[in-house]
Specification:
heterodimer, A: mainly beta, two-stranded antiparallel ribbon, 6 strands, 0% helix, B: alpha+beta, six-stranded mixed β-sheet, 17 strands, 33% helix, elongated
Chain lengths: 61, 402
């Protein structure tokens, strides 16, 4: 089964630049070429980006 | 799988004590459970691991779910308690890491053998032995078996460690254990010398200074060198030598040159003992064996041992297995705020990831701040959520990589 992908442009939520996206999948993480923010594809139809989930730090295993 | 059956699985696994190197009863029990849950194959392997599989044995794509079945000591009465936040299961290993392992076993049972055959995928669940013993015997055996020759290198791997049900662990720091035994001829404690214990103190201060220098400008814990004292002791032997013993554990960031550090430590011991310059210019550390260095100087001796070395490992957020977990967590709860996490500890990810270099994450329900504590407990709602999330993440990954 092939995964659904999408191509097009979406706005970076950090710097509002138009980000070109090609064959991206739901929840794929990409980077804004303008501001460098890590972004998550949160919707394919319409194409929509959000800041990627944060990277936290924990003590222990 | 019904919730009651999944909770029964967790409860049963936690109830069987399984300290490192004493896992036999628990692995045998878990293999029985795997058979009862419809696994195509289940057995205890040569290393003592509990192994269960669904899908064809010769399927080219292997998805590895690698948990561990051993725990640290500490008898916590196994019981379910109703808290204001919901029911929790208390017990040693409920978080680290029988909860994540039971999650894997239940999730793979949910997927089922017929599904795996239809997808052309082989899903392997391992309850590995000796993760807590710093030998990682079980994970090393699995790593060596799935080496691309005897068995395929996994297409993806999920390590079973607590991340919390809505978070995914991307990396673990490395580890190095350093043991110094410094000795000098016995002296009266009323003499001018401050005593052999000073050697241990001076070595620790040297390690602290190394860490402080390395950590300049490094704000994140994952990037820092973190030493701790694990043992500190003085004694006098039968040959009238006073000894100071200090064991230092160091949590390593990804870019730390461990061999260069070891050479500097040997140079410190040389200088303390007044011995010859080190004969170990090419000192190279690895995770499989210990390195011992004996230094004998004028009236002093030092024995420096390095062992249990594991390099840090950090995966990217962009791998297909990380994406699959994001999708699965968001599909489970559209209000969830998934996050990625880096850990200061070390896990079996450090053992298998450098060899397999496949997409890898660690995942499991539970709060890792409860690891090894007398309060270790797992919210049952988190456990049940994690079962669905793992099953759907494996489905998602499988459809992606088909």
């Amino acid at each position: 089964m092939a995964m659904q992908t999408a191509s097009g442009t979406a706005e970076c939520p950090e710097c509002f630049a138009d980000v070109e996206l090609k064959d991206v999948m739901q929840n794929e993480i990409t980077q804004c070429p303008e501001c460098g923010a890590d972004l998550e594809v949160v919707s394919l139809e319409p194409l929509e980006l959000a800041l990627a989930p944060e990277e936290e730090e924990d003590w222990g295993e | 799988m019904e919730d009651a059956r999944a909770i029964e699985l967790l409860h049963g696994l936690v109830a069987i004590e399984s300290l490192s190197q004493l896992e036999e009863e628990a692995t045998a029990w878990l293999v029985e459970q795997m058979h009862a849950l419809g696994y195509a194959r289940a057995w205890v392997d040569e290393a003592g691991n509990a192994v269960g599989e669904i899908g064809q044995a010769n399927a080219p794509r292997v998805i590895m779910l690698l948990g561990h079945i051993d725990t640290v000591p500490g008898a916590i009465p196994v019981r379910v308690e109703e808290l204001a936040t919901g029911a929790v299961l208390y017990g040693r290993g409920s978080v680290d890491a029988k909860g994540p392992l039971a999650t894997f076993v239940a999730a793979v049972a949910t997927l089922g053998h017929a599904w795996a055959v239809a997808q052309g995928v082989r899903v392997v669940v391992v309850g590995a032995v000796e993760e807590e013993a710093a030998t990682s015997k079980g994970a090393r055996a699995i790593r060596d078996r799935f080496n691309g020759t005897t068995e395929p290198v996994p297409a993806a791997c999920i390590i079973g460690e607590p991340s919390g049900w809505s978070r995914v662990t991307l990396g673990y720091k490395g580890r190095l254990l350093v043991e110094l035994d410094a000795a000098q001829p016995m002296a009266h404690t009323a003499g001018p010398d401050a005593g052999i214990g000073v050697a241990a103190v001076e070595f620790w201060k040297w390690v602290e200074a190394e860490a402080a220098a390395f950590n300049v400008g490094r704000a994140k814990l994952f990037e820092q060198l973190q030493p701790s004292i694990r043992r500190l002791n003085t004694w006098t032997d039968g040959n009238m030598w006073d000894h100071a013993e200090v064991h230092v554990g160091i949590r390593l960031p990804p870019d730390f040159d461990t061999s260069a550090f070891a050479r500097r430590a040997v140079a410190w011991a040389d200088a303390w003992a007044g011995g010859e310059a080190s004969n170990w210019p090419d000192l190279v550390l690895n995770s499989e064996s210990a390195l011992n260095n004996e230094i004998e100087g004028a009236g002093r001796r030092a024995h420096l041992r390095f062992h249990a070395h594991e390099a840090a490992w950090r995966s990217e957020r962009t791998t297909p297995i990380a994406r699959s977990f994001l999708t699965s967590i968001r599909n489970f709860d559209s209000f969830a705020k998934p996050a990625f996490v880096l850990k200061t500890g070390t896990s079996d990810m450090n053992v298998v990831a450098p060899a397999w270099r496949c997409p890898i994450v660690a995942y499991g329900p539970g709060d890792s701040s409860l690891d090894h504590t007398p309060q270790e407990h797992l919210p049952l709602a988190d456990y049940l959520a994690a079962i669905q999330i793992v099953a759907n993440a494996v489905r998602e990954f499988t459809s992606f990589s088909a």
